[in-house]
Amino acid sequence: xxxxxxxxxxxxxxxxxxxxxxxxxxxxxxxxxxxxxxxxxxxxxxxxxxxxxxxxxxxxxxxxxxxxxxxxxxxxxxxxxxxxxxxxxxxxxxxxxxxxxxxxxxxxxxxxxxxxxxxxxxxxxxxxxxxxxxxxxxxxxxxxxxxxxxxxxxxxxxxxxxxxxxxxxxxxxxxxxxxxxxxxxxxxxxxxxxxxxxxxxxxx
Length: 204
Fold this sequence. Notes:
Elements: H1 6-38, H2 41-63, H3 68-98, H4 110-126, H5 135-161, H6 167-194
Helix pairs in contact: 1-2, 1-4, 2-3, 3-5, 3-6, 4-5, 5-6
């Protein structure tokens, strides 16, 4: 796989992650505005979820190119977020098993389409950085990858629920998502503690 030179990678990632943070912020604000205009809570919840992503990408943009300890702290923070998300997924799974509820099919409307489109655009924007040796870049890539996988799985689950309402599929997806989140957490921690700090010479 062809890797970017450290300086080229640093400048390219700096521009990309700032653009991603700004783009997600615009979408989130648009959804919040739509929710307020329509009095509908669904776009509001979705927008708030994406504000959370804005904070992650914005935090990475601010930390990237700073001192090694700042970059490492930022990467470990993202790892902690992923670990918490994984634990939360398993907690929700246990609650679903203890208190079964009917699966509510996702409506393939604006929200589902926006979720998938935004996730794929972020994935494409960060694709060239997936092999980076920099712990913070790797953390951002894994965060984006897992978001895209999670969005695709749950939208797909919602669509299929109307035709195949078996709960084991939902449970299996929860376990898979939790596993991916834990795997990403391990990779980020390992890269932060043992990896080389490369591709981060640009100042944020």
